[in-house]
Amino acid sequence: MPTIFLESHNIKNLHFGFGQFNYHLIKGLYNANINDFKITLHVKDSNPLQTEFGSFFNYKKYYSFRRYPLFRIKKKYDLWHSLNQNIKIEPYHNIPYLLTVHDVNFIDEVSRDLNHERNIRFQNKLDRSNAITYISEYAKKSTHQYFDVPKVPEFVIYNGNPITNIFLPENYLPKLISNKPYLFSIGEFTERKNFHTLVEMLTHLPDFNLILSGNNNTSYANSTLKNTIEQLGLKNRVIITGKINDIDKQYYLKNCTAFVFPSLREGFGIPPIEAMRFGKPVFLSNNTSLPEIGGEHAFYWNNYNPEYMAKIVIDGLNTYQNNKNILSEKYIAHAKSFNWDDAAKAYVKVYRSLLK
Fold it and tell me: String of b and e for 189-208 (b: at least 16 CB within 10 Å)?
């Protein structure tokens, strides 16, 4: 039986995008009930996966030293799938190779010099690929913009929405709640997420608080964001929760007035479609993949002037309230169109094409 190796060690970081991608793709592959090839997962801790998926997958323990050529995995699989563009673990043998590209944000965040180590490593991954999948048309376009993409089959396969079913217990309350209507956003607190612009916008929206969730143990959180909150005197109106569990996230999404996401760069952007699953209006940056993922009924900022951003929110909320039932239904339908089982089936189709 053909064997496929999934370089999936980032599943250990479930609070981050790569970890979520790894887990939900693996779960979708399990649901696909494949019987014509066997998948091996490369993971640091296989126990929770074996508890959930049993012997459907094989498991190989991840060690960081595998990134060095001398210690590469020498078993010769029939197909190797590198689940994101940043992975340093590579196969020892020259075997069929599938690369999934989430974004090339490192061009802006690290270096535009194509001779930089990071860019060389990515170009090498492209060069060895027998096929490439992208999580958005934007990810594909930007890869072609900056790099020499080989003439191999290319596929755009959208991520699924992690929130398919709403399981929020009745009367559930997280530890931190707002004492008045609030806007909500979630993500790692980095320059790219641009959260400080939401704080600046809040000065023009006196009727709302702002709740921000995600990893806030970052230099951006402790400098730019913290300073903005203090300088504007908004400590009582900005609630920072830190990392949250799925139930807390569902509470904040269900009870927010709107979801706000001023990100500067996104390869896909899952949080907006999570918010849409609850029928909520979303306000997004009009750049990178966000218009592609947000669709025609989201509201978009063209710049980050605080007064302008506030006006877009006020006007958007008025539009939403005047068409609440129709727009909520459209948001929910749009969110449900991103399905991990469908995404996994699309990856299976690519696997089979390469195994042939």
Answer: bbbbbbbbbbbbbbebbeeb
Alpha-carbon span 261 to 338, nearest angstrom: 19
Cα separation, 337 vs 158, whole angstroms: 10
- The percentage of residues in the chain with a pLDDT greater than 70, rounded to a whole number, is 100
CB 161 within 8 A of CB 273: yes
Q: Letter for the amino acid at 172?
A: Y
Read off φ and ψ for residue 113, nearest 5 degrees. Answer: -75, 115
pLDDT of residue 83: 96
**DSSP annotation of 236:** T
CA distance 98 to 75: 17
Residue 207's pLDDT is 97
pLDDT value at position 278? 97
pLDDT at 157 (0 to 100): 98
Structure confidence by residue, pLDDT tens digits, 42-67: 999 999 999 999 999 999 999 999 99
For 294, residues 6+ apart whose C-beta sits below 8 A from its C-beta are 269, 272, 282, 284, 300
Please give the full DSSP string across 171-233, using - where no structure is assigned.
T---SS--SS-EEEEES--SGGG-THHHHHHHTT-TT-EEEEES---SHHIIIIIHHHHHHTT
Residues 6+ apart with CB under 8 A from 78: 2, 3, 4, 37, 95, 96, 355
pLDDT at residue number 17: 84
Q: Are 350 and 297 in contact (CB under 8 A)?
A: no
